[in-house]
Amino acid sequence: MFIRSERLFLRPGWPEDWDELTARIADAAIVHNLANVPWPYTMGDAEAFLARAEDPRCPRFVVTLPTSDGSELIGCTGFAPGDAGVELGYWIARPYWGQGYATEAARAALSLARTLGHRRVVASHFEDNPGSGRVLAKLGFRPSGGRVRRFSLARGEAVPAVTYQLELAAPCADDDPADAMSKRAA
After folding, report:
1. What single string gives the DSSP state of each residue in the chain?
2. What's phi and psi for 115, nearest 5 deg?
3. Whole-model pTM?
4. Which residues pair with 77 in a beta bridge?
5. How far apart are CA 149 and CA 98, in angstroms?
């Protein structure tokens, strides 16, 4: 699957992305905010991530920024099956922080969630990463009232996290999924 947003292009990760992926995510400030990513992050980790089988109901995307001579990989977003519903995840490389790319990429992925049949999407962030909480709020997620301890592979321990949820309306034949999501978030 491919998604085009205002400034970004989301696509599946390809094996030849491993070096650019490694260069972008191999930053402790990023990896320590992710639950299932090891630290240090190696080329082998990127190769394994890109080789994982894709679940058609939980797609993962590399986030690219179109440039005059092609595109630049700046992060990832996507979904994973979870106990409380499909879970949204995302990260953006440090040089691109503070420019709205995480919100734009996650919003583009969420526009597909309802089409895939998801009615509820969950997300969380570690308490010491409030920027991710601001991204989730902009996307219309609401705190679910849960504070949990979530294991961080990079940190090697369970870390306090805040949980969120987003309820998606059932699709209508003439409805644009992004519009319905925006209406629910308002």
Report:
1. --EE-SS-EEE---GGGHHHHHHHH--HHHHTT-SS--SS--HHHHHHHHHSPPBTTB-EEEEEEEETTEEEEEEEEEEE--TTSEEEEEEE-GGGTTTTHHHHHHHHHHHHHTTTT-SEEEEEEETT-HHHHHHHHHTT-EEEEEEEEEEETTTTEEEEEEEEEEE-PPP-TT--HHHHHHHHH-
2. -60, -35
3. 0.89
4. 61, 90
5. 27
Rounded to whole angstroms, the Cα distance separating 131 from 98 reads 9
Q: At 99, list the tokens.
A: 């420019």
Structure confidence by residue, pLDDT tens digits, 170-186? 666 555 545 545 444 44
Instruction: Give the CATH superfamily of 3-185.
Output: Gcn5-related N-acetyltransferase (GNAT) (3.40.630.30)
Record the tokens describing residue 29, joined without a space.
Answer: 């400030």
**Domain boundary assignment for the chain:** 3-185
pLDDT in tens, 33-86: 999 999 999 999 999 999 999 999 999 999 999 999 989 999 999 999 988 889
Task: Pull the structure tokens for residue 105.
Answer: 């990429």
**8 A C-beta contact, residue 128 and residue 159:** yes
Rounded CA separation 162/66 (Å): 33
